[in-house]
Design goal:
Largest sheet: 7 strands, mixed
Number of strands: 14
Distance between the termini: 37 Å
Structural class: alpha+beta
CATH topology of one domain: PH-domain like
Number of helices: 9
Shape: elongated
Radius of gyration: 33 Å
Length: about 325
């Protein structure tokens, strides 16, 4: 087994990432559960929509309102993936938005029980929904004096409707935090477990004799360590422990080249290595903004070339084709 203080720190860091990921995963579960508790609490504390009008609480963002629907909802139209309806109780008429499944429940309950308690949050009525609601109402009412104008519609409904399904602002805030924490937990667990698995797999593949040789070379006075890219340049081996634990002889390397690719907002730089068994390895991982990354990659490639003059240190399709042909034996 390869033994080194910096390698031990990497392994310890990965284990801490896994433990932190587990903690955040538990916290994510608690937060999502809290969203459900908040919803149930807010629903239990809901007030009638008519009282919200009377108490001037139409702009409240963290209350649920209800309407005891006593007649079949009247379909207004389809706007932005939701259905809009007129609903009514003994105090007046309201605008409701919901999905088809909710409407089916209301229809069934009203037909059987003559009433259904609709609970939702208050939202602003969109301009498109307003136009459809006015047009529908005015088709049903023949007397021009009783028809809605834009002004009378807004005066009556105060630009507010009951929306069944969406969460309140507090629920949404907790939900967003839960999603963020959950993504962080998944990232820590995934990366930590993958790196630990790769490290253990590499350690298992290295014989005890070779591991002893590598350990001695890591302690050699001429060995160079580049902390920024987690790479050792020993007299006969290059040893790297970034996302992968790699220990390969310079003499076994056929091809080594720099590779850059974008990872979100950061540029990930590494060196790809092809050995005599036509296995590809990734060493000298550098992702976060690191000064002198060009220096590190150039120095590592120059060192490999110095220790093995036959190695190819250029990248390109022609080299890829060349080594594929070599692997096939022609």
């Amino acid at each position: 087994m390869i033994e080194n203080e910096f390698l031990d720190k990497e392994v310890s860091s990965c284990k801490k990432s896994v433990l932190l990921g587990l903690f955040l995963a538990v916290l994510t579960t608690v937060l999502f559960y809290s969203v459900g508790l908040l919803k149930e609490r807010f629903k239990a504390e809901s007030i009638s929509f008519s009282n919200a009008y009377e108490d001037e609480r139409l702009l409240s963002k963290d209350i649920y309102v209800y309407v005891d629907v006593s007649i079949m909802p009247r379909y207004i139209g389809y706007v932005n993936s939701r259905e809009y309806y007129y609903i009514a109780d003994e105090d007046g008429i309201y605008i409701m938005s919901c999905h088809d499944s909710t409407y089916s429940k209301i229809r069934e309950a009203v037909s059987i029980n003559k009433s259904y308690k609709v609970i939702g949050v208050m939202e602003k009525i969109s301009n498109e929904a307003t136009d459809k609601a006015i047009a529908y109402y005015n088709r049903m009412v023949q007397d021009p004096d009783e028809q809605f104008t834009a002004e009378s519609f807004n005066s009556y409904f105060c630009d507010r409707m009951i929306s069944v399904g969406p969460m309140s602002y507090k629920e949404t805030g907790v939900f967003i935090i839960a999603v963020f924490v959950g993504i962080t937990a998944f990232g820590l667990l995934f990366i930590g477990c993958i790196v630990l698995f790769r490290y253990n797999k590499t350690q298992d593949c290295i014989s005890g004799t070779e591991a002893a040789i590598i350990n001695e070379e890591l302690k050699a006075p001429e060995t160079e360590y580049m902390e920024e890219c987690h790479t050792y340049l020993t007299p006969n081996y290059i040893v790297s422990f970034g996302y992968f634990l790699v220990a390969v002889k310079y003499s076994d390397i056929l091809w080594a080249y720099r590779e850059d690719h974008q990872v979100y907002l950061a540029t990930h730089t590494c060196i790809k290595i092809l050995n005599k068994d036509f296995e590809t390895f990734q060493i000298a991982d550098m992702q976060w903004p690191i000064r002198h990354r060009d220096y590190y990659t150039d120095y590592i490639l120059e060192t490999i070339e110095d220790r093995n003059p036959e190695v190819v240190t250029e990248s390109g399709k022609e080299y890829e084709k060349y080594f594929k042909k070599m692997q096939r034996g022609y």
